[in-house]
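Hi C.,

You asked whether I'd gotten around to modeling the 405-residue construct. I have! Everything is below, sequence then structure, no commentary in between.
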Amino acid sequence: MNDLSDAQRQRALLSVLISNFLMWAGFFMVVPLISVHYVDGLGWAAAGIGLVLAVRQLVQQGFSLIGGVLGDRFGARGMILLGLLVRALGFGAMAFADNYALLMASAALAAFGGALFEAPKSAAVAALTQPRDRQRFYAALGVSSNLGMSLGPLVGSLLLGVGFANVALVSAACYVLSCGLVATMLPPVRISSGTVGTRSGMQLVLRDRPFLLFIALLTGYWFMWVQLSLSFPLAAKELSGAASAVSLVFAVNSGLALLLQVPVTRVAERFLRPLQSLCLGMLLMSAGLGGVALSHSLAALVACVVLFSLGALLASPSQQTLTADLAKPEAMGAFFGVAALSLAVGGSLGNYAGGALHDLGSRSGLPALPWLASALIGVVSAAALYARFGRAARSAPERPTHQKV
């Protein structure tokens, strides 16, 4: 679809990697500190701030479909640039949010910006990468994401000492810088072959039953994935009695991702197909979750986090690769927009059910309940994915020898 030289593709993919780091750093620079500033610092109600964060996720994931179909219609580059500018305005406005209405509006605006660029960015990566190199690039993308996720909160915490407004403004500057990078280095990437209207693109997705089934079954992966930021921190606090132990969970996960994401992906590419990597990764994640039910010390919990994180290293680039492979080139934006709904549904269910099962387990004297339930959902989802798509993976021809990106 895109008549680009290898050098142009390399330059475009480099811009995606760098801008992806800036996006994640800017996001995690401000979002985790919203509750710190408004609840701990200003004494606002925690429930109200929780609603702000819930609306933010719902708007971004729920409206990603709009960004996808508009990307098909008008091109990925323009939608990415527009989305980055809208998010920069949202986080910039947060610097002046001294009342609840303005805070909610700025968070929703930032989320809508993410909805505009998320699906076009994913579709652009799929259009720029060759199938033989796609999984490896997604692994590199994961490294840049985790690097931004690690450094963003550190920079935000330092800036918080001189005022939350500075945190929000520097976060917005990250998106402005990313916008400039995309404008100068990313060519006008076509993510649909031919002229596809919004309605015809959606019809194409809705008629693709294998893709819809894959996205539906992938909600089990996202259900487990969100437990890293919900259930694991709760367990760390309960087992250690110290809130500082929560940071250990994220440090272990981020450290493993930075050190092992690319090596693990390279090894997996040699011996496993993407679907096999996804299912094996989901089973390891399930084992990590289920193991917490037997953990009675912080060391045992850390071992479960390691197992969970190793599974995520296998599953994350594989699920992105499979989504790209299953998406039709006629309307990749629409396909990736629908794919984002998997995170919206699975993540929302995971957050709600994880918290509800934790409370139910505590009241009924069954603390293992949330962990065993989450593990079961992961095992069932992995088994269903392999049962439905495994035959196609086994009968597919061998992939060509991998070349360096």
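If it helps when you're writing up: The chain has a mean pLDDT of 86.

Thanks,
B.
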